Every structure is written in structure tokens, then in C-alpha cells.
Amino acid sequence: MKYIALIFILLLIVAIGGSYYMFCFACDNQFRPIGKKKRLNMGNKSAFDKLREELKCEREVLLARPHEDVSITSADGLKLHGDFFPCENPERIVVCVHGYKGFGIKDMAMVANFYLDNNCHVLLIDQRACGKSEGRYITFGMKESLDLARWLDMVDERFFKLPIFIDGVSMGATTAMLALGLALPKNVRGVISDCGFTSQWDICKHILKRNFHLPAFPVLYITNLICRIKLGYDMRTPDTRRAFENARVPIVFVHGAEDDFVPVEMGRYNYGIYKGEKDWLCVEGAGHGLSYTTDKQKCQQGLLSFFRKYENM
Length: 313
Fold this sequence. Notes:
Strand order of the largest sheet: 1-2-4-3-5-6-7-8
CATH topology of the largest domain: Rossmann fold
Order of helices and strands: HHEEEHEHEHEHHHEHEHH
Strand content: 15-25%
Structural class: alpha/beta
CATH superfamily of the largest domain: Alpha/Beta hydrolase fold, catalytic domain
Largest sheet: 8 strands, mixed
Radius of gyration: 20 Å
Number of helices: 11
């Protein structure tokens, strides 16, 4: 019995240690993981290097445009940073929300240049704990959606006559979808949800299996307990299913057919359960967050069509 008890205690220690590692890996943006990072599905190395150089040029072009630093304060007192880029003849404003552990200029420069060339003011925000924004912990859209609602109030107050669209990629897409469950300005006319996941629980379960080859129990359950203690929320709470219950803002769901990080099935599921006006745009050959760079023509046509269809509703 002593040996059984000892083995049980050791297994429990290992499970708690692994769970805490999982929590830090997922939520703490100051944490640096051990071992080699698994690269996303971005095609062959030469194509990836070419894309990286193209994105660098796009950022340089964007930063050469007139812009200003803007900021808001979150409900819990964090100073959040954004970069506002005006265009000459604005017909709408697009608020761009970057992906997991990214920041606005890094993730959204290419599509921001396209928007600016097509009569859109552009606001690139840095989500909490990312870029120039304050904070340490990422909450997979739970608190970020509240932050986004504040950004939208600021935009509506400053540009109250312009239609507002939200363009989110990866976690930014989930942030945008979760924000639809909140009280938003009436001028919010649509959301571009690019490869968004359904919930923190679902995506962490997927990554636990994909990267670490582990089942959800017990690690994810203990991780969720740590999340509740340290950050004050349940990992199953930020969930698109709940946010969609009364949301009717039009959404175009974008997803790369070869996405191995946020499975395309999650995008199809979100599309299937949404009761408002919606479109589905799947890009063949595109990995995670790479739909726009993989097929610019298809995405650009889809985005402009989406704007024209809903901006005057």
C-alpha cells in the first residue's frame, strides 16, 4: 500500500507540474517554453522565407504611411496600445485584431495596406500582454473581447458616421466573435473571422494532443483549475457558442484548408452554428493564418464584396 500511495503521489506531482507548465505555455506571454517549437504548416522553407521577406516589405510600406499612436485603458487598468492609419477618402474603418502572441503591425500589415488602398481607415490594436500593450497573461479572448468592446466605443465616438468592421485572425478572430456577445456600437456592420477557434478549452485540448501527444485528462482539467485560481475564469467560458446566442452582426468566416493549428472543422462549426448573416471563404492550400497571403485575389474580392454588402445596413 505504501508503494501504491507513493506512486500515486508521484503521478499527482507530475500531473500538477505538467499542468502548470501547460498554463504558463498557454497564458503567460513572458514564459519561454522548453525544447524545439513546432512550426506551423506554412509550406516548404523557400516559400516560407519568401513570404517572410514579403511581410517585412509590407510592414515597411505600412510604417511609412501617416499614422498615430492611440491608447485606451482596460477595465482592469491596463494601458492598451494601437496604431491608427488614416486614408484620404474613408468609406469605413477596419479594426484589425492580431493572433496569439503576435501584435498588430506584425500580423496585419499586408491586409492593412490593402484596406488603406481601398478607402478604409485602419486601426491595428495590440491585445493585452502583446506588442506595446501592458499585461502579462493572455486569456484567449475572455478579457480581450472586453478590451475590444472598449476600442470599438472609442472608434465609434471618434468616427461615428463611418461603418465599422472588425478583422481578426486566429485568437483575434475568436476575440472578435466573443465580443459579439457584448453590447457593441450600432455602427459595427461586420466581422471577418479568419481561422478562429471555438473556445480556449477546445484549442488547448487540440494543441495538447497535437504537440504533446497527451489526452485532456488530467492535465487540462488541472490547468483549468490553475486558470480559475490565477486569472479568475474557466477555460470553457470564453466560448463562441454562448457569444453567438443573440449575435446577429454579419460574419465572413475565412479558413485555410490546410490549417493544422486551428482545424478547419472549428471554422466550419462556428459557421454552422451562427444564426446571423454569414459567408464562408475557404482557401485551398493555405495554412494557419495564411489565407490572405496564399490567395490574395480571392480574399480581396471576398472582403470588398463583404464590405459593400453590409456597410449600409
